[in-house]
Write a structure and sequence with these properties.
Number of strands: 12
Low-confidence stretches: none
Order of helices and strands: EHEEEEEEHEEEEE
Radius of gyration: 15 Å
Number of helices: 2
Helix content: 10-25%
Length: 168
């Protein structure tokens, strides 16, 4: 199993909303009411940009959810397995965990999570049925979706072609 250069990371790939709810719905729901402490991204030092192939880590006061996408519809959600103080070792890349480079993410820190939504893509393309995870806060919303075999981040309400399924 490929670990994305993260020694302790073991992605668990899932497909479809019902599978994600069955495996992680209760734990995602338990995050509601907790403040977001920090969001960690893997940064490509040489290109000075987010390396979006690696998981996105969201720390809610000590409960860390790790979200990653691959292919057209694979979603992995893991819990408390990645230590962002440990190096990322991926051949030919100089990568490191960073939490301080996206103003939109920094603005979410300390906000209380109001809802978690699973977003189901309804477009008529290969990604139909793919699941994204959305975190709603008082002043914004963070959506982590499949962006053609890597993670994509958007802020605010999700695109209209997503069916929104609240876990509240």
């Amino acid at each position: 199993m490929f670990n994305f250069g993260i020694e302790s990371y073991r992605p668990q790939w899932l497909n479809g909303r019902s599978t994600v709810v069955a495996r992680h719905g209760e734990q995602l729901r338990a995050l509601i009411g907790r403040p977001l402490t920090r969001v960690w991204l893997v940064w490509d030092v040489q290109d000075n940009e987010w390396f979006s192939d690696c998981p996105v880590l969201l720390d809610f006061s000590g409960e860390q959810v790790e979200i990653n996408h691959q292919k057209f519809d694979d979603l992995s959600i893991t819990w408390n397995t990645v230590d962002p103080c440990q190096p990322v070792r991926w051949a030919d890349f100089d990568l490191q965990w960073r939490h301080d480079l996206r103003a939109e993410l920094h603005a979410l820190q300390s906000q209380i999570l109001q809802d978690v939504e699973l977003l189901e893509w309804t477009g008529s393309d290969m990604a139909q049925g793919a699941v994204a995870v959305s975190f709603r806060f008082p002043h914004s919303q963070l959506n982590i979706a499949n962006d053609l075999d890597e993670n994509g981040l958007t802020f605010g309400p999700p695109e209209a072609r997503y069916l929104r399924h609240s876990l509240r």
